[in-house]
Amino acid sequence: PIADIYAREHSADVIAERLVGSELLLLDVVLENLDEIVQRFVQV
Q1: pLDDT over 70 at 44, yes or no
Q2: Which of 13, 19, 43, 44 has the lowest tally of Cβ within 10 angstroms?
Q3: What CA–CA distance (Å, rounded) separates 31 from 15?
Q4: Cα(21)–Cα(12) distance, rounded to whole angstroms?
Q5: What tens digit of pLDDT does each residue of 7-33 get?
Q6: pTM score, two decimals?
Q7: pLDDT band of 1, cuts 50, 70, 90
Q8: Distant-in-sequence, close-in-space partners of 37: CB < 8 Å, separation ≥ 6
Q9: Do 34 and 16 touch, CB atoms closer than 8 A?
């Protein structure tokens, strides 16, 4: 299903790759806790 495609694109690894180099405030904290953030807020 199409949802599987989007689920793979929003894995913690892919999100981390896209965030690296961004100007996000507290980026290091976000990357450090990304697995937990994804589990809580990204529904697959």
Answers
A1: no
A2: 43
A3: 9
A4: 16
A5: 777 788 988 998 998 999 999 999 999
A6: 0.68
A7: low
A8: 30
A9: yes
CB 38 within 8 A of CB 13: no
Q: Which two tokens stand for residue 26?
A: 């507290």
Q: Is 28 or 38 the better-scoring residue by pLDDT? A: 28
DSSP 24-38: -TTHHHHHHTHHHHH
Q: How do the domains of the chain map onto residue ranges?
A: 2-41
pLDDT at position 8 is 72
Collect all residues with Cβ–Cβ distance below 8 Å to 40 and sequence separation of at least 6. none
Q: How far apart are CA 22 and CA 5, in angstroms?
A: 24
